Amino acid sequence: MKKLDRLILRSFLGPLVLTFSLSVLVLLMQFVWKYVDDLVGKGLEFSIIAELLMYASATFVPMALPIAVLFASIMTMGNFGEKYELVAMKAGGVSVRRVMMPMALVAVLLTGMAFYFANNVMPSAMLKYRMTLYDITRKKPAVNIRPGEYYKDLEGYVIRVGGKSKDGRVLQDIIIYDHSRGSSEMNVIVAQSGIMEATPDNRFLQFSLRDGYSYTETISGENYTRRPLISIGFREQTLSFDISSFAYNKTSEDIFKGSYQMMNLRQLDTAVAKLDSSLLRRTDQCGVELRSALHAWPVYLNSAAGFCAADTTSCATVSALLDSLTPDSRQKAVAFARNATQSASRSAKMYSDMLENDREYINRHSIEWHRKFTLSIACLLLFLIGAPFGSIVRKGGLGLPLVASVGFFVLYYVVGMISEKAVRESALGAEGMWISSLVMLPIGIILTLQATTDSSFFDASSWRKLFRRRKTH
Asked: In whole angstroms, what separates CA 87 from the centre of its chain?
């Protein structure tokens, strides 16, 4: 490897790694902000939270990698241009295309790695991420009874304490409202003090109450005016509450394995083939049921007129049949026809919505299939935009490269979201997922041609000189 190639790669790989790390960090902070309510206050171990963040970070890699390639290429070529290193390279007989070659090889390598990651690593990471997030969101908050507040997270019970020791074990002025037996019996337990602690297996929460009373009021029969009240005093009493639902339990992987986001290309192809055949069968079934519903009125009309009831093709016309009926029978036939039509219309709407949902579900599989390619190719496309753009503007640092990177990526992302929505709603075929790539490809080609041919089209100084010349004339 030549010294020039080492210089270019060293200048490119540093911003690439830094930008990639920052992109993943920003996306991860957005994820934490979104699910902060589900993570805080549940007594989760640090290892569980770290596991969730690790899996979440892995799911952000396909999105963060194109951003990193775009920013690093703009920054590297911009620094070369701003420090006149690009001019020195050109003076030494090194073309812009030759300068971009080592970075282009890295971009191609990253494209292949991104595809391998999206097809092999991403499904497993997404599966682990969804499982861990589901288990965390399903876990109830840790038992935290605060003095002076009503604690309602224990199902069927409301607890209020007047005071609490620093270690959280000793409680004062305890009131427990027991609603576990329904509205037919109301039970209130009052104690001066008590000790709260969990069993060794963390399945039950035990209250050892001291010096208190238990009040039970029973509603018997339909007599609401006379309610027996039972008051029992105690020196010591132990209550146990089931807190097994407060524990963190891992869900089986089989619940999420069927999702399209957890599949590779081969699994997506198999799933789409099965769903297509199922959709065809359901479409045929809907057609048969609708034809049967619409056929009901002619059968009824022929039966009422005394003609054949099974084979309506050889029967009289509808007008002749109606004329042959009595006014009362004609009115019943018209009412039957109205009801049959409305029923068929409702069935058609239901079947249409059902088939539309099935088609959308199939489209989501196709979207995921094409996304594995489009996000990988994005690394190369955005490099073709970033590297020549940086050599044209000749501005390094963080300012202009950051603004330009955000602008180009927002354009790519917005076009991609619009086309994805159109594909999901069947307004476009699955190939519509490539629209964002087709939009960015001409931009990259034009910028590359402008940079490699030293065109002054994007040079601001040449435009200022042109305007000055026009003013003088």
From this structure: 47
Q: Which residues contact 362 (CB under 8 A, 6 or more apart)?
A: 272, 275, 276, 279
Residue 340: how many other CB atoms lie within 10 Å = 17
User: 426 φ, ψ to 5°?
Assistant: 65, 15
Cα dihedral sign for 265, 266, 271, 273? positive
For 204, the token pair is 């039950």
- Enumerate residues 6+ apart whose C-beta is below 8 A from 309: 299, 302, 303
Under 8 Å between Cβ of 347 and 288 = no
Q: Is residue 202 part of a domain?
A: yes
Last residue of a domain, one of 246, 268, 296: 246
pLDDT digits (tens, 9 = 90+) for 237-295: 888 887 766 665 666 666 777 788 888 899 898 888 888 888 888 888 777 777 776 66
Residues 47 and 113 in one domain: yes
Mean per-residue pLDDT, 389-412: 81
Nearest residue to 207 via CA among 160, 248, 142: 160
- Classify residue 20: in a domain, yes or no: yes
Place of tokens 């002076």: 148
Q: Taking 70 as the threshold, does the pLDDT of residue 227 lie above it?
A: no
Residues 6+ apart with CB under 8 A from 352: none
* 3-state class percentages of the chain: helix first, strand second, coil last, to nearest 5: 65, 15, 20
Contact between residue 190 and residue 174 where contact means Cβ atoms under 8 Å apart: yes
For residues 210 and 122, membership in a common domain is answered with no
DSSP string, 144-196: ---TTSEE--STTEEEEEEEE-TTS-EEEEEEEEE-TT-TTEEEEEEEEEEEE
Taking the mean position of all CA atoms in its chain, how far away is CA 328? 59
Q: For residue 450, what are the CA distances in angstroms to 91, 103, 389, 436?
A: 18, 18, 9, 22
Please report which confidence band the pLDDT of residue 312 belongs to, taking 50, 70 and 90 as the band edges.
very low
Contact of 319 with 305, CB cutoff 8 Å: no
Measured at the CA of 201, the angle between CA 198 and CA 203, to 5 degrees, comes to 65
The answer to whether residue 109 scores a pLDDT higher than 90 is yes
